[in-house]
Specification:
There is one protein chain. This protein has about 775 residues and is an alpha+beta fold. The protein contains 19 helices and 32 strands. Strand 7 and strand 8 form a beta hairpin. About 55% of the residues are buried. The strands form seven sheets. Strands 1, 2, 7, 8, 9, 10, 12, 13, 14 and 17 form a ten-stranded mixed β-sheet that branches. A seven-stranded antiparallel β-sheet has the order 3-4-5-6-11-16-15. Helix 13 crosses helix 14 (about 540-560).
């Protein structure tokens, strides 16, 4: 038995104690698409992430003491519990009366006391680390030419150095085909591989040595220091888990020494780590045994080749070139130089491809959706429980999926949304008295749909609806009619049913309005000087409703199976207020022009219609586009965009406004100011959504296809927000709506040519600048357009 598992502070101390003197300057790796460093990681945000969609690790690259912090996507505490209040519908009706009467604070009090569901304290229902794999080596006081790297082209992490006349190379990757982590330790001199390996975790899991295997098994439970731990029995009731390590040595010996395995005098060692939980049923031990049996039957060269081929099948679809790479400098030095004003467009390419790497590594078909930290989270109470925030964060995680040619990586997101339906229907019926399904600003791996917490962030029943619109976008990018019929339309209709019943008539105008609800996490000052957060008719509510209703109507036009419901939605749309422009020229966020206590707020929710939706465009709604621009400028002038994901959203919105200069400035700010040494996005702390949002934004600057062309298709706009700084370059493999793959090359800031390939016969409108060109595309045949 062991109770030892180093917390992050202890880990830092251990790494420092095992540090050695580093001499020389290792050259850059051969691949320009590599994150690389000349020193080991000294903290978690310097370690390099690897993952196969389900199983991941943070690799520190220590010389004398290597540390892999481990994650398995389904390692959650808790279980499904009821959170809703019994008399919520009466409170909802009373709050509406108060809001229509202008009694904002009183309505908020009613909602907080009698409507909002129970929010479990942080760290009780939470995602957790799987534990640690530690490798202790004979100590080298001095090493030379140290380099650690993560090659985005192969999804392989390597550490290399020379010591005592020998060169040591350590390779780590997470294999999706073989469902395990693989570590190879080699030296260019025989018999020099020696180390001991341990698996460890808090909460007294069992560690067993069995031959050449180490087994770590237990049950997830919350940290006993978390608030309300004693009052939350479900905190003790997490999944059962197992991690199993197998050590395969060539030459030398492998011996069990208590709770560790020791290798001595080997020419090479390969470590295979499998992990599983009881989340989906089944026995974790049996799952680990099966994975290790498959992987250990293959030579290391096959494991590596199978991993690289599987990964490159996805990653190699898109190539971006913005000019010569400055890869002679380590990544951390390049980031520091960028923060000081250096120009490094190849670093932007690295950032873009790192976002795609993270999506491939954290979200594969059959897996859970990527959470707030993807799959990489340390400790037992990570920020916001590393849960699924569905008031922009998880949606942003999947913004790159369609445009950057990773459509299948969005499958876990669709499965998550569908998993929300059963409990979301219960919440819609019992809490709201509505049909369909609902979810609020957040959920967890137990898929609750209840509206929980404080009104300022929690009274917002649009998480399910926002998720549902992704199904429609997936159809637009892929043209998969079967997906639309079997999964897309049913989920859109479920969301639309709730929204139809949620709308009520405004007694002052006769229009349909949404509410009570907040504009996520923001607030306003009432006429009598109080601060409140709930209204009837928040701008974002109506933009999401229009977006979902319109998608549902258009999906029915494709399928032709539900005309009566489409007519009902169309009638509701006619009674829904449109976007409004305030007296200062900005788009209105609330139902009235209230003073803003926080004018630089990170959420810019009332621009949902600009992005990710397409209700507001430069061409079709120029006045609204100008108001959206004024809103962005105002927020930024008051300190907005200070968090990573918010800055990423702003880049996307400026790209939609075709403002290349401001999109570029915000992108540079995102990379320079909101990026950690290992390229993770910094909220702060680390949230992965900014990485994905920034990746999507780069694609959005180069290609857009969100605008209907008026002929039943989509307008494909080339280089809509190309910054002057990106003078010449090319991108290959982006996807446009309509099932079209697009390659673009430009020189001296002007389009050189574009090549389009369609999945099926299509007629599209190609737009470059003010020029529109109709093109007929044939399946699997290149069509070239010269600039």
């Amino acid at each position: 038995m062991t109770t030892r598992r180093a917390n992050p502070d202890v880990r830092v101390d251990a790494l420092r104690a095992a540090a050695c003197e580093l001499r020389g300057a290792a050259p850059a790796p051969a691949s320009p698409l590599a994150l690389w460093y000349r020193q080991p990681a000294s903290e978690w945000v310097e370690a390099l992430p690897i993952g196969n969609g389900r199983l991941g690790a943070m690799v520190y690259g220590g010389v004398n003491h290597e540390w892999l912090q481990l994650n398995e996507e389904s390692l959650w505490t808790g279980h499904p519990i009821a959170r809703r209040q019994p008399n919520a519908q009466a409170a909802l009706a009373r709050a509406r009366e108060l809001l229509f009467a202008g009694q904002y604070v009183e309505a908020q009090r009613v909602i907080e006391q009698d409507f909002m569901g129970h929010r479990i304290e942080k760290g009780l229902h939470t995602y957790q680390t799987l534990g640690d794999l530690e490798l202790d080596f004979p100590a080298f006081p001095v090493v030379a030419d140290y380099r650690r790297e993560l090659d985005l082209g192969t999804a392989v992490c390597r550490t290399q150095f020379t010591a005592d006349g020998a060169t040591f190379t350590r390779t780590v990757f997470a294999s999706a085909p073989d469902q395990c982590l693989v570590v190879e330790l080699v030296c260019d001199q025989p018999g020099r591989i020696a180390f001991s390996a341990t698996l460890s975790r808090e909460h007294a899991p069992t560690v067993l040595c069995q031959g050449h295997d180490l087994r770590l098994c237990g049950q997830a439970r919350a940290d006993e220091s978390a608030p309300d731990f004693a009052q939350t029995p479900s905190a003790l009731d997490g999944v059962r888990f197992e991690a199993r390590l197998r050590v395969l040595a060539t030459g030398g010996t492998v011996t069990a020494q208590g709770d560790r395995l020791a290798v001595a005098g080997a020419d090479r060692a390969v470590l295979l780590l499998a992990a599983a939980t009881s989340y989906r049923g089944g026995d974790p031990a049996e799952a680990c045994a099966a994975s290790l049996a498959q992987a250990s039957a293959l030579p290391y060269s096959d494991l590596l080749a199978r991993h690289v081929a599987d990964y490159r099948r996805l990653f190699d679809r898109v190539e971006l070139d913005l000019g010569p790479a400055n890869s002679a400098l380590p990544t951390d030095e390049r980031l520091a130089a960028l923060a000081e004003g250096a120009v490094d467009h190849a670093l932007t390419v690295l950032y873009f491809q790192f976002g795609r790497y993270l999506l491939i590594s954290s979200s594969r078909p059959g897996d859970l959706a990527a959470n707030l930290q993807g799959i990489w989270a340390d400790g037992y109470a990570p920020p916001w429980n590393a849960d699924y925030h569905i008031n922009i964060n998880i949606q942003m995680n999947y913004w790159p999926a369609g445009p950057t040619n990773l459509a299948e990586c969005e499958e876990p997101f669709f499965a998550m949304t569908e998993a929300l339906v059963p409990r979301g229907r219960e919440a819609a019926s019992e809490t709201f008295g509505c049909r369909g399904f609902v979810a609020g600003h957040t959920t967890d791996a137990w898929w609750f749909g209840d509206i929980i917490g404080k009104p300022g962030y929690g009274m917002w029943p649009f998480g399910a609806a926002w998720c549902a619109r992704h199904f429609w976008d997936h159809y637009l990018f892929t043209g998969n009619r079967a997906f639309l019929a079997e999964r897309g339309y049913p989920i859109l209709k479920e969301a639309a049913l709730f929204l139809l019943d949620w709308l009520v008539e405004n007694p002052h105008t006769g229009q349909l309005v949404s509410g009570p609800s907040t504009s996520p996490e923001n607030s306003f000052r009432t006429p009598d000087g109080q601060v409140a957060c709930l209204v009837m008719g928040a701008a974002m509510d109506h933009q999401i409703i229009r977006d979902v209703f319109t998608a549902c109507i258009e999906a029915n036009a494709v399928l032709g199976q539900d005309d009566a419901f489409a007519a009902e939605l169309q009638a509701a749309l006619a009674r829904l207020p449109g976007p409004r422009i305030g007296g200062d020229g900005r788009l209105m966020e609330w139902s009235e022009e209230f003073e803003e206590p926080e004018p630089g707020h990170r959420h810019i929710s009332h621009l949902y219609g600009l992005h990710p939706a397409h209700e507001i465009t430069v061409d079709a709604t120029p006045e609204l586009a100008a108001a959206a621009r004024a809103t962005l400028d105002y927020r930024l002038s008051h300190g907005g965009g200070h968090t990573g994901w918010s800055r990423a959203w702003i880049v996307n919105m400026f790209a939609r406004l075709q403002d290349a200069a401001k999109a570029y400035a915000s992108l540079q700010g995102l990379i320079a100011d909101c990026t950690l040494p290992n390229f993770f996005d910094n909220h702060p702390p680390f949230q992965i959504d900014g990485n994905f949002g920034g990746c999507a934004a780069i694609a959005e600057m180069l290609l857009q296809s969100h605008t209907p062309d008026g002929q039943g298709g989509w307008e494909i706009r080339l280089l809509p927000a190309l910054p002057a700084a990106w003078g010449s370059g090319h991108i290959r493999g982006l996807r446009a709506r309509g099932g079209i793959t697009v390659d673009i090359a430009w020189r001296n800031g002007k389009l050189d040519h574009a090549t389009l390939r369609s999945d099926r016969p299509a007629r599209v409108t190609l737009r470059y600048g003010t020029t529109r060109t109709a093109l007929d595309l044939s399946p699997d045949q290149d069509t070239r357009f010269a600039g």
